[in-house]
Design brief:
Porin; 5 helices; rod-shaped; 473 residues; four-stranded mixed β-sheet; eight-stranded antiparallel beta barrel; 60s Ribosomal Protein L30, Chain: A
């Protein structure tokens, strides 16, 4: 039994220790992120609504003082704490002067009162289905309080006939419980200040708050006031009264609903749903990246399916079809052309620098390189992108009739070595065929061979290694 108690105790303390170290994560809606304390003051008009009431003009006679029976001054203050965007507690206090008339009767008095009330933010209890920066709030409060009041009653001749708490000048006052009801409109001026407009009914739980007992179970007072509220809190915090977590929730749900179709549909059939697809009109069969954008292997801004030359080096300026700009037509793009004004037909090396021709300088051109021709994976087809390079080779050969060339085919390291050797030869033969059949170069001036995968030009860049090099023989 002792062992069981010991194990139970260890388990309990272990659980308690774990609970103490558990991290608490606060969400955006937590009250600590908002201004929840406020202090306000308002001034307005008080009306008596009991047996002797304000503005019952039929009861007032010319013999009564002119200042009685109307609205009297009232001043109130409040301290309010909000526990959530919908519920808070408000403590209020005030001073009100009162007066009223009845048949052959009028009274004058005043009262001091204080109360604690529950506050309900009616605006946040209704769902509007939209999210916006709210600047208005309607609040209802109900509570319980106490008042010290004094009232003195007179007949129309001005003779005192009754009193509650002594006469007006007496320090003695009557004590009674009150139930306050308030409807409170707030308009945000900024995060710190609000404009307040309110109406309040204060039910005194006695008959005689107007110094007149006439069968009404309780007298009550009405008050209409205007004022301002100061909201305590750091500058970055917003007023909790104007925040509705439900509207944010419904906005999120609407967004999820709107995006559901995008998540499940793929209009262009590229395998990427509409929600994540940055290009939702990709043609059928086009390879795309994870975000649905068409592949752009050379990063020149032209998608591969529209790129006439998908092997352009990074940073090269290209035309609208993705071909590297080659101002002098020597087959070497301007981005790497060290001699951008080479005469037409001149032999150049891989940097675009002209070399002596074999016709004018014996073997001076031997070993010179012309533009290479590049191929797609496992392909021997000469693409349109390479025709500008072939045109540069053909111009050089026609301008130098005594120059012969060697076409050396290459492959990447994918596949068997013997297969790649054959693939390189087929690529060299394909380039030779284009030069003879399309550009009219004599086949006797062209030699073909293959290096297969043995001479990669750029490690890790197979699109560069799949090529045919052209050199002067």
């Amino acid at each position: 039994m002792k062992r069981i108690n010991l194990l139970f105790g260890l388990a309990f303390f272990g659980f308690a220790a774990n609970a103490q170290t558990e991290e608490v994560v606060l969400t955006e809606a937590h009250p600590s992120n908002f201004r929840t304390w406020s202090l306000g003051l308002n001034v307005g008009a008080t009306a008596s609504l009991g047996d002797a009431a304000s503005y019952f003009f039929g009861d007032k006679t010319d013999a009564m003082p002119s200042g009685v029976g109307g609205f009297e001054i009232g001043v109130r203050g409040h301290l309010t704490k909000w526990f959530s965007p919908m519920i808070g507690v408000s403590g209020t206090g005030g001073f009100h002067q009162t007066s009223g008339t009845a048949p052959n009767y009028y009274y004058e008095g005043d009262y001091l009162d204080g109360d604690i009330s529950l506050a309900f933010n009616l605006t946040n209890m209704f769902l509007y289905g939209r999210e916006y920066q709210r600047k208005h709030a309607m609040i209802f409060t109900v509570g319980l309080g106490a008042t010290y009041l004094a009232a003195t009653g007179f007949d129309e001749a001005g003779t005192q006939v009754s009193s509650v708490g002594g006469d007006k000048l007496s320090s003695a006052r009557a004590f009674t419980t009150v139930i306050p009801l308030k409807l409170w409109y707030k308009r945000q001026l900024n995060e710190t200040w609000d404009l307040d407009i309110l109406y309040r009914n204060t039910f005194a739980l006695i008959d005689g708050a107007d110094a007149l007992g006439k069968g009404v179970n309780s007298d009550f007072f009405g008050y209409f006031g205007v004022g301002a509220t100061y909201n305590f809190g750091d500058k970055e915090k917003k007023n909790i009264v104007y925040y509705s977590p439900y509207e944010g929730l419904f906005a999120d749900l609407k967004e999820i609903k709107d995006n559901y179709g995008k998540l499940t549909n793929d209009d262009d059939g590229d395998g990427v749903s509409n929600l994540f697809d940055v290009d939702n009109s990709t043609p059928a069969g086009v390879k795309v990246a994870a975000n649905g954008a068409p592949m752009d292997s050379d990063g020149d801004g032209i998608p591969d399916y529209m790129d006439a030359d998908p092997f352009t080096a990074k940073g090269a300026k290209v035309d609208a079809e993705g071909r590297a700009i080659d101002s002098d037509g020597d087959g070497v793009g301007d981005y790497m052309d060290a001699e951008p004004n080479t005469p037409k037909g001149a032999l150049v090396n891989f940097n675009g620098v002209s070399v002596a021709s074999a016709a004018n300088a014996g073997s001076g051109g031997v070993g010179a390189y012309m533009p290479s021709v590049f191929f797609n994976f496992n392909s021997v087809s000469v693409t349109d992108a390479n025709y500008l390079r072939l045109a540069a080779i053909a111009n050089a050969l026609k301008s130098n009739p005594n120059v012969n060339i060697v076409l050396t085919g290459h492959s990447d390291a994918t596949g068997a070595e013997e297969y790649n050797k054959t693939l390189g030869q087929r690529r060299a033969d394909a380039v030779a065929k284009e030069l003879t059949q399309v550009f009219g170069i004599d086949a006797s001036r062209i030699e073909t061979k293959s290096s297969g995968e043995s001479e990669p030009l750029a490690n890790g860049h197979n699109n560069i290694n799949r090529r045919v090099d052209v050199s002067v023989k």
